[in-house]
Amino acid sequence: MKVETLRWIDNKLEMIDQRILPASFEYLAYDSAASVAEGIRSMVVRGAPAIGVAAAYGVALEALRLSSEPRHSGLDPESSALKKLDSRLRGNDEAEDFNAGMEAGFTVLAQSRPTAVNLFWGLQRMRAVWESVQGQSNAAVAQRLLAEAHEILAEDIRINRAMGAFGAELLADGARVLTHCNAGALATAGHGTALGVFRSAVEAGKKISVIADETRPFLQGARLTAWEMVQENIPVTLITDNMAGFMMSRGEVDAVVVGTDRVASNGDVANKIGTYMVAVLARRHNIPFYVACPLSTIDMSIVSGADIPIEERSADEVKGFRDYHWAAEGVSIRNPSFDVTPAELVTALITEKGVVRQPDRDKLRALFK
Ligand code: MRU
After folding, report:
1. Is domain 161-367 in CATH 3.40.50.10470, yes or no?
2. For residue range 313-360, what is the model confidence (pLDDT) as tens digits?
3. Counting C-beta atoms within 10 Å of the first and last residue's C-beta, which end of the chain has fewer, N or C?
4. CA atoms within 13 A on the CB side of 252
């Protein structure tokens, strides 16, 4: 079964509700920037590239919504003397309302989640397109923005396939590869970044097996990575996060491949909480630690990982799962959702332009030339 994380149907964005996977498989429909922002915030859609694509559709949906809203200047259009003035005023008001509505849409989307830079990358790209079509009718602007969102989605799959091909070459036949969180088709428009490397390796005829960290507290590994791999008959073994060191010490892990939410210009990598722990363990055991990273996830505007905003999520996620709470009432709780792995622990970044070993500022800068 092909996983279509986001799809365009009947002038609406549909997204798989990842909160209820794997128990239920359901699409939810979105028709405005605010609703898409809520889908991102509440984790219906998650994973850096998927969030970027969703935000792009959020902008397009807002333009479609605003351009289809009927407006009236308040003047009596029956009076022919007023007809011209009415249409001129309406035109001005319409443009102003449209622009104000669009700005509000950009803002609500930008506030949905802070860490994955793809969200801001997607918004920036949509803003550039919007600016390039200023002066055109609202309907034409909306169609151009929708075309761009479709292109961002298609491009994401092409990029994942390119990264997959480069990454597959790094894995030996028979490799046992550990991954953390879900950097799969569900975290992107399709194929995945880290899981895209596994898919491409299998397509290339390699027999690999995957070790999926459960990924407390939101369980992206147990619920999403395990589900994706099982769907495709790629051998997968689930472990709890605190078992990774044991597996490595017993020689049962040949490589680690993870995704990322933001890479700073010096090569520091933000990814799901717990990734740093895995990277330290991998170094201790001389196991290569690879990060699958589209260029849209590299933030050249920040100096190091210390500048990456780390999302703190609700204490409820740590207290238990869904409605069941096992933690002692009254205990104080922290829930940072991401951590930063310093560049020195990264064996290589796998990008759509090739593999960058021991990433540093110069090597990252060269990717954008
Ligand atoms: O909180 P999430 O589920 O959005 O976090 C996702 C991750 O940390 C992924 O590893 C990362 O976004 C890369 S997805 C290709």
Report:
1. yes
2. 999 999 999 889 999 999 999 999 999 999 999 999 999 999 999 999
3. C
4. 12
